[in-house]
Fold this protein.
Amino acid sequence: MTVRSEAPAAGIWRYADAFEPRIDPPYRISLGEGDTPLEPAPQLAVALGLTSLWLKREDRNPTGSHKDRGMAFQVSAAIAAAAAGGCALRHVALSSSGNAAIAAAAYGRAAGLGVVAFVAPGTDPGKVRAVRANGAVVVMSPNALTLCEAWCVARSVPNLRPSTDPAAVEGFLTLGWEILSDLRDQAVAPATMPEALFTFVSSAASFVGIGRAFDRREVAGFERAVPTPCLHAVQGVGGSVAAPFDSRPAASALQPGRVGALGARKTRRLGEAQRFIRGTHGGGWWITDDEAEAADELLRAHGVHAALEAAAALAAARRAAAESGIRTAIVIVTGADRAGGAMHITSAARSTDAPTRSDPEARTIEDVDRIVRHALGPPPLTGGRR
């Protein structure tokens, strides 16, 4: 396990001097996130009606998703902030529909922290197993988001929910900077330079991070003249970020499905995300389950096993080729298939046959305290930093 190191920076920490705030080396946590490949996919491009396509393989991150970038920075920033206040951080928490909680569990464990993950009862059992297998305490609650917020305030525990923690966006800047670096290193010809980038959006933390990275590309060592692709936000039916931009006939008659069902459909980053779409002349796309499942079959036929939301991003690129004339694109692939496994997901967590324990539902702060006490010992009564 790679934790704190003052070795030459790699992954997200190669951009350490561009972060705001800067994190000193002793507080930097890493499991090897970042430096994911940008792979040309010519056969997939043909199937989608594109002339060229690249897949940014965020499923190759340590826990299988792009959330690792944000969480590496978030945990590091929380530790640094506690140290600056003369305290030692003991616990962190978040509410999550899966991937962010898995990342928090892994990075919290790497930092020696107790992680409390609040999840809704409908969360994918495989993801719940992965969260628990990485050492986190699972708090099942029908009010996961609001209960987590209340408990964190009551116990002064940092809330690492990516949709509300400003540090999450900073970690996601590295995804945008890496894409620019990848294109430069691959010496992509101007004629095939990708004109559009498609990524699934929930809280929009990663989407905003990419947009800010393109705006701040000079601080990361890229010239202002470096071209950047227009940004396309992809959501399941009903997603608020894409809503003003999806122009398909009768879009308002569509019903929400499985795509992004447990993710955030509303976000406090709505305005900024939509400004990036308009400012880059990008777009927004609502993708149905049928469209995502058809794209998932294409991905699997080409050896890529990822989350349905990654397939939705591919489906959006297909629609953009047909409806908007897009010819060259990048699709961000995230959410490793648990059967394939990411390096920090245990075999027990990967098994779809493994039993899932029946968790008591928590509805009050005192319920959470009891669950945390049983798993980690007494929780802090007046603060998570001691």
Observations:
- The radius of gyration is 20 Å.
